[in-house]
């Protein structure tokens, strides 16, 4: 029977191999022809191994405001990937264009309800720092259409 140290070493070795394969496969195709080149991708070039592993382009946006505190604060950067709306579930954090005020830019909130009508998804969202009760939230909330959805937040880089 193997001891705990041996199992831990084998797990770490497996993680190292998986990460190495991702970096190696990304280096074989450094231009990522299927990913359009722009300033956002240039910034996230360090994530190319993870992009190969996830098979998705990683983008980032800067949070503005405190509606998601303590999860994210003002000026934190969130990392996100495009997703199929059917992949999302209640509790996921999404990034989307404001449905009624497009000039306000993107919003990062948590999904609190999902409605699927004839295959079209709409997501009710709420900031983690929203002090409103459920009844008050229902009056002041709106639903995000899948057309306004940009992606699923997968990580954060917190300001220091």
Number of helices, counting only DSSP H or I runs of 4 residues or more: 4
Computed over alpha carbons, the radius of gyration is 19 Å
What do we call the CATH homologous superfamily of the largest domain? Umud Fragment, subunit A
Question: H/E order of the elements?
Answer: HHHEEEEEHEE
For the structure shown, list the relevant keywords.
160 residues; alpha+beta; Umud Fragment, subunit A; 2 domains; 7-stranded antiparallel beta sheet; 4 helices; 28% helix; 29% strand; elongated
In summary, what is this structure?
It contains 4 helices and 7 strands, in the order H-H-H-E-E-E-E-E-H-E-E.
If you had to describe this structure to a student in words, what would you say it looks like?
There is one protein chain. With 160 residues, the chain is an alpha+beta fold. It folds into two domains: 1-55, no CATH class; 56-160, Umud Fragment, subunit A, CATH 2.10.109. Helices cover 28% and strands 29% of the residues. It has helices spanning 4-28, 39-43, 48-54, 134-140; strands at residues 58-62, 77-81, 93-97, 106-117, 120-126, 143-145, 149-157. The protein has a seven-stranded antiparallel sheet. The protein starts with a helix and ends with a strand. The model is unreliable at 35-44 (pLDDT under 50).
